[in-house]
Amino acid sequence: MVDTNDVFTDKSLVKEDVTAVSTDTPWYKDDSMIWILVGSVVAAVLVLVAIVILFVVCRRRRRKKSWDLGWNDTDCILESKSAPISRNCSPKLEKRKSFPDALADTRGKMVRSLTLASVPSFTLPPERVQPQNGHERSCSLTAMQYQQHLIGHLEPELYRGLSFSDDSSLCLPPSEYGRLWFSVLYDAAVEQLNVNLVKVRELPGRGRNNAPRDPFVKIFLLPDERTCRISKVRKKTLSPMFNESFTFQVDPDSIRSKTLRFSVYDVDKRRVRHSLGHVLVNLADIDILKGDSMFKDLELTSTMCASLGDLQISSTYLPNVDKVKIVVIGARNLRQIDIDQNNSLFVKLQMIHGRKISKVKKTMLRPSTSEPVFNEPFSFSIHGKIIDTCSFELSLMTTTRTPMSHDEVYGRIVLGSFMFARGEELKHWQEMMSQPRVAITRWHQLNPVTHHD
């Protein structure tokens, strides 16, 4: 029989062995193994760093060697880094001298200037001038003598003075506003005054570019301003040629008291006429029986006319709605107006911001009279911040009731601040601004057009 105590004893031994095995430490937790692993990693890193350092050092030595070879080679020019070393060097050319005959001094430097002693002697070839005729062929003439001889034998007929009517013969000073040529001849047998309009020169151009104009001329026999003669319009020119004749029926007793007026105008693309100047000729001061051609400079205003008339307007400033209300009431004393059933009058209002036209409005057409009545209100929206930089230009216009109507500026006024207006027009503006919502009514004298549009 088996002894039970031995069995129990064997079981206890087996249990102790299992316990001993279970309590043993694994290999990766051993300190010696960890240090071995760390040491191998460090060694690998050091080897890698050493390889990199060795590679860099070798590369630098090779580059330095190539640069040393390039600098030490006296027969070649240093090449750029991008060029291959095997490329052949360009040949070294000899420096060109600015003075080939220059010599070197004792110091070995080039001498760029020579003394007169080193300049080679030379002589000019004999001058070959063809003589004037066979008698002088054996004579030797210089060039200056030959030229003087030619000048002395010029034909005087080739240099005869031109006629007085030609522009090239007139040594006249330049005209600021233009110059007009005309002739006047009176025929007492038929009591007719013949006026020949020849031409106009040196008219100012349009705008800053001096663009050409479309000028024409109106001829009046003052003091009668209702009857005039009108020339044809010349297109795109500043020196128009007219060569037109006009007749006026005048009796011999009153011919010396008459004054001839030439008014030059320009027609723009909008069919608006602009005055360019006037010429006044008192028939008592010229010889009207010869018909000689004469000229005279243009003037901006006609000195024979005292006033163009007055225009009555009313203006109101409404700051609560940022508006200016202007009422064109009427005009008076229009002495120079052409009273004709085919003519009409109207007033053009322009609101100008700085120098730019913002709005344009017109009244209805009225018959051509010396005292027309309009009574038409107009409203303009203006912000309070820019009202000091705005002005109103009111122009009294004349037009003809024909299919080819022409608008002409008779006179104008400017209503605005001190930057745009003066005199009574400035006082009117200041009074309107100081009394808002109050209508200010005044008469203003019409001014002639003195600037070129």
Oligomer: single chain
Roughly what is the average pLDDT, rounded to an integer?
Answer: 76
User: What fraction of residues sit in β-strands?
Assistant: 25-35%
Helical run tally: 4
Question: What is the CATH topology classification name of the domain at 310-445?
Answer: Immunoglobulin-like
> So what's the CATH class of the domain at 310-445?
Mainly Beta
GO molecular function, one term: SNARE binding
Domain C2: 176-296, 307-430
Organism: Pinctada imbricata
InterPro entries: C2_dom (IPR000008), C2_domain_sf (IPR035892), Synaptotagmin-15/17_C2A (IPR047897)
Q: What does this protein look like?
A:
The chain has 453 residues and is an alpha+beta fold. It has 4 helices and 17 strands. Among the domains are: 167-297, C2 domain (Immunoglobulin-like); 310-445, C2 domain (Immunoglobulin-like). The strands form 3 sheets. Strands 3, 4, 6, 7, 11, 12, 13, 15 and 16 form a 9-stranded mixed beta sheet that branches. A 4-stranded antiparallel beta sheet has the order 5-2-1-8, with no helix packed on it. The longest helix has 42 residues, at 31-72.
